[in-house]
Specification:
The complex is a heterodimer of chains A (284) and B (242). Chain A has 284 residues and is an alpha/beta fold. Chain A has 10 helices and 13 strands. Chain A has 2 domains: 216 residues, P-loop containing nucleotide triphosphate hydrolases (Rossmann fold, 3-Layer(aba) Sandwich); 45 residues. Classes of the chains: A alpha/beta (284), B mainly alpha (242). At the A-B interface, helix 2 and helix 3 of A face helix 1, helix 4 and helix 10 of B. The complex binds adenosine-5'-diphosphate and magnesium ion.
Chain lengths: 284, 242
């Protein structure tokens, strides 16, 4: 779908490069994640790919053709979910949706979408009366309004309670299973782990690593077991390799001869891998 | 319906919801009250001046207000990822403002025609106001892109009023009577606007003067439209990229 090569960008009023030689591609039919702490340039990357930023350096190809070659029809193809609310606050949700919907050739069944995200009963309310989470869900409907073949979602579950977050995530999976492609921008590890076919780790304006979450976790350090036990009247802690404990004499003698306090296996999380590979911590 | 019409209808609906049309109606009421006390001999001239102010300064402020809301609420960005032409977007702003200007003209006209018995060329006013309103709407669009907030837009439009609108009115009311000054004013589009409206109000003007002013106004309006179209990407970057 997308081929991004040597993408660099500096904001006109910024003194530092926000994006530095970013390279990645997005395959058709996958959920591709851009993961990184806030301020690394995830949203900026999305703005470039949605043509909100145009004077970038490098090349962005969509379906093999340079992005700059596309006119307004590009927007018939893509759906954009913004991080911030993007609705006329003095209009109702329904008025907002129907205004934007009419601009497209191939509009979605928006009543069905509103029902699905739980906003149908509130459709006649002004958006200014909406809670943060309701606005986030309305943004999602806005993104899906034209039955896009390519969907951009910038922090789509940010500010949602677990139930609504679940609904949006299920809709994303369904969309992908029906052949849609998603570029998901997020700082949430769990969302990436659950949803993404591939993920790019972003740190300091560039991409440190791209792979499937599963492969990335395997690239992490060996799995371990931490054992806390009593030795005499002293408490001790030892760490063992989880893959070899069955033949590890030291481990075996501890569990046979000492009173165990706790024993925990340590699976590497995506978060650990992220820190290992980028040297940067993602905090919520 | 084309996207241009959809944008225009949406824009007018929002001008209503965002209290821009209602404030315009309030201003009209105020002006009707004012015209009520104007002596019949001056009514045509006052009518032309009020319409002139409405189509110029009010257009700038109203477009500024819509742009301000679009920027603040992020809807500008949402529009920029919709399949619309930039010319449709700019035209829809201009046309919606002209619709509100024409509403003012028609209501004021109805008042001076029936209550004051004035004889005014409504068609001439409609033509003149369409040009003047459109020109100033695009000017307001420009100004709001360079203004960082609504206050600074008001500052800019006040400055515009002092430099380009007030002198024209002062000459019109013969507060300033220096002849060369009146000719200097010919280089600014607001004087051309006033001339066109005066002609429609039946105030005696040389035929060449009317034609020169009308052509000049038409030329600057077309000019500013195409310049804005060219600069639109720069504008949009400034906002969409935020
Ligand atoms: N409009 C802007 N002007 C100047 N700098 C900006 C602008 N928007 C974002 N930035 C800067 O660019 C960097 C990346 O921002 P962003 O892409 O929003 O990060 P993320 O989405 O990963 O949190 C940040 O340092 C931010 O301060
Ligand atoms: Mg962001």
């Amino acid at each position: 779908m997308f081929q991004v090569e040597q993408l660099s960008y500096t904001y006109p009023n910024g003194n530092e490069q926000t994006l530095k030689d970013v390279n990645f591609h997005v395959n058709k039919g996958e959920i591709f994640g851009l993961l990184g702490p806030s301020g690394v340039g995830k949203s900026t990357t999305q703005k470039v790919l949605t043509k909100l930023i145009q004077n970038y350096k490098g090349a962005v190809l969509y379906k093999g053709k340079d992005l700059t070659q596309y006119g307004k029809d590009y927007f018939e193809d893509i759906g954009v979910g913004f991080e911030m609310p993007v609705h006329f606050s003095k209009l109702t949700a329904e008025e907002n949706i129907s205004f934007f919907k009419k601009l497209y050739k191939n509009p979605a069944d928006t009543d069905a979408l509103l029902k699905r995200v739980g906003l149908y009963d509130d459709r006649k309310k002004k958006v200014s009366e909406f809670s943060k989470g309701m606005k986030v869900r309305l943004n999602f409907v806005r993104a899906m309004i034209n039955q896009p073949t390519m969907l951009f979602l910038d922090e789509p579950t940010n500010g949602l309670d677990p139930v609504n977050s679940r609904i949006i995530k299920n809709m994303m999976k369904e969309y992908r299973n029906q052949g849609g492609t998603i570029l998901l921008t997020t700082h949430l590890m769990n969302d990436v782990d659950e949803l993404c076919d591939r993920v790019a780790f972003m740190a300091n304006g560039t991409i440190a690593e791209i792979d499937s979450p599963k492969n990335l976790k395997q690239k992490g350090s060996a799995r371990t077991v931490i054992v806390e036990y009593m030795s005499g009247n002293k408490q001790k802690t030892d760490v063992f390799n989880l893959d070899t404990i069955g033949t590890d004499d030291a481990f075996l003698s501890i569990i046979q001869q000492h009173k165990l306090l706790t024993m925990h296996s340590q699976e590497t999380t995506l978060e650990d891998i992220f820190i290992q590979m980028t040297g940067v911590k993602i905090d919520d | 319906m084309t996207n241009f019409l959809r944008l225009t209808v949406g824009e007018i609906q929002r001008m209503n919801k965002y209290q821009i049309l209602p404030s315009s109606l309030f201003v009209i009421l105020f002006w009707i009250g004012f015209l009520y006390f104007v002596d019949d001999t001056f009514i045509n001239q006052m009518f032309a001046i009020l319409v002139f102010v409405d189509a110029s300064i009010m257009s700038i402020i109203f477009v500024g207000a819509t742009m301000f809301f679009e920027k603040q609420e992020g809807t500008f960005r949402s529009l920029m990822v919709s399949p619309i032409r930039k010319s449709d977007y700019i035209l829809s702003k201009g046309v919606s403002i002209v619709v509100s200007n024409l509403l003012t003209v028609v209501l004021l006209f109805a008042f001076v025609y029936w209550v004051k018995g004035a004889n005014i060329n409504l068609i001439g006013f409609i033509a003149g106001v369409s040009l003047i309103g459109f020109f100033h709407a695009i000017l307001g669009f420009w100004m709001s892109f360079y203004a960082k907030d609504f206050t600074s837009l008001i500052m800019r439009s006040s400055l515009y009023m002092i430099v380009f609108v007030v002198p024209v009115i002062l000459v019109e009311l013969q507060v300033i009577q220096t002849e060369w000054f009146a000719y200097v004013l010919y280089i600014i589009p607001t004087q051309a606007s006033m001339n066109v409206l005066n002609a429609a109000a039946g105030i005696p003007l040389e035929t060449w003067e009317i034609w020169v002013s009308a052509s000049y106004l038409l030329a600057v309006t077309i000019g500013i439209f195409f310049i804005t179209l060219k600069k639109f990407d720069v504008f949009a970057q400034k906002e969409g990229g935020q």
